[in-house]
TrEMBL record:
Taxonomy, superkingdom: Eukaryota
Pfam families: DUF1365
Protein name: DUF1365-domain-containing protein
Amino acid sequence: MVVAGLASVAAAYVAFTAGWLRLRLFTSGDDTDRTQKHGYVLECNVAHRRLLPADAAHAFAYRTLMLLVSLTALESCTLDVGRGWLFGYGGALARLTGLRPAAYLDSSARSGSGSRSIKDKLLDVLAEQGHARDVLGDAWMLTMPSYLGFEGINPLTTYYCYDTAGRLFAVVLEVHNTFGERHVYVLDREKAEQCPTSSGGSSRLRWTISKVFHVSPFNNRGGDYCMTISELSHPPPTNDSEKLRDTLPPLPYVSIHLRHQVEPSDSALPTLVATLSATESHSLTAPNLLRSLARQPFVLLLSLLRILYEAWVLHYVKRLDVYGRPDPKPARPAWAAAAGGSASGDQPSRGVGWQPPSWFEQYAHDLVCAFLARRSDELGVRITLVAGNPGEPDIVFSPIRDQAGAPHREELTIWYLSPLFFSTMVMAPSIDHALLLGYHTERMFIPSSEALFLSVFNSSTSSADEDPQHTLALAQSLRSRALPRELLGSPFTIPRTHPLDPSSFSLLRRARHVTYIAASLAEEAVARWLYTCVRARFVPGHEPWLRWQRAVETVRDTPTPSSSGAGAGATG
């Protein structure tokens, strides 16, 4: 497969380098006029330097290819080159290079990201930071396009946002990580520090902002970013932009310093410095695009391979340990109050792309929701599940008498970070264990009331109690094997059956349920085995498979009350 892929790339390379002089057969004659000043092909230098810890210092640099395009021109298809075959908007397939809306900004199904334009989603991001939707006139978008249908990881996409008068008022950085997650940082022009430049080029702006998104496994999620970004030579043109005719082509510059003050002596040094600087800028035309690709025919295919190679150097050569991937910080304003201000909703940044649930998380989601629908009606409690992902709608369970107009007695709200909440509820052998691990230790969810949470989930009646085949008892046995001995005795009681186990009398359904639990445990065991095989080393205390051991430490440090004495009331 790899050889065939390289062969197809080589064939395409030969085709466009040998035949680019005949491009008039495939392009309209006014390509240059239509794209002049609205889009550019950029050849860029990218450099990374790790300075701390000193014994893991490392540096590398490479050249890459990027596009700088006006969003208005892009989405009107004004920038399509070669009738959309060489470059086009709206998809990655059946064209040499392209951009599509679903690959950028909000990726949730709730937002309809598959059909919404990039500019429309950018307006949402700006509006959340207090910028009216009618302020944005146009924006430059600096990014890497798809290539031969392949859409690689785009580590950084930068949006330079201009008002209707052509003044820069914000810069939006969209960061992607290798886990398929996305995050945006919104930098307000009025809050920037003006930086002098020794070369006399474009003025540079500087911001300092908290790091809240997990990008590299070699850094934790703490610290600050110091971001320096050059202003571009001109805004995206409008119909009356004759004054731009003699302006120089833009050469973007982005520098990011990550600072972790590990020790007082380290305070003057950044942990990491990353820079992106454009060295050449040409109008986005067929000859310019193909000429740039001919110089670097494989460059757009190498982003992920470069990341993996440099990670290998840092881990195995420089002996730098890795951090486990944390769940993205919540991007819902309600989380700020629930989690003591830990949400990113009050920060100029938030998550815009989240991992989809795994097969088991989706299965657990369905089990939990079916259970809560029944318990809501039995107890007369209104239950609301609020995801950290703003693209996920709230899940509300109201008792039937509440729906008929009678007042409900109590309300329970559960804020959860990710679908891992559902699988944790199903895989913990008791609800007390789930509360210990998910809330007190890993903080993956927060109940508005611990007492009500335990009352709702500790169902005293279930048809699962009649289990002549002992299949559900087997499920509990499997769950318990994952726990340290310290969590198998008092004050934690493991019931014979789990309240979230299926209430169906069907032996087939129960057997399937036990099989799913066993498969989930096997999946975790295989993942740990693979880490061992490749000799991966985690920062002590961050190993994914030691979360129950971390729960033991929580019990030792701050003993958690059992369900019999858990009437602690609301938690914040």
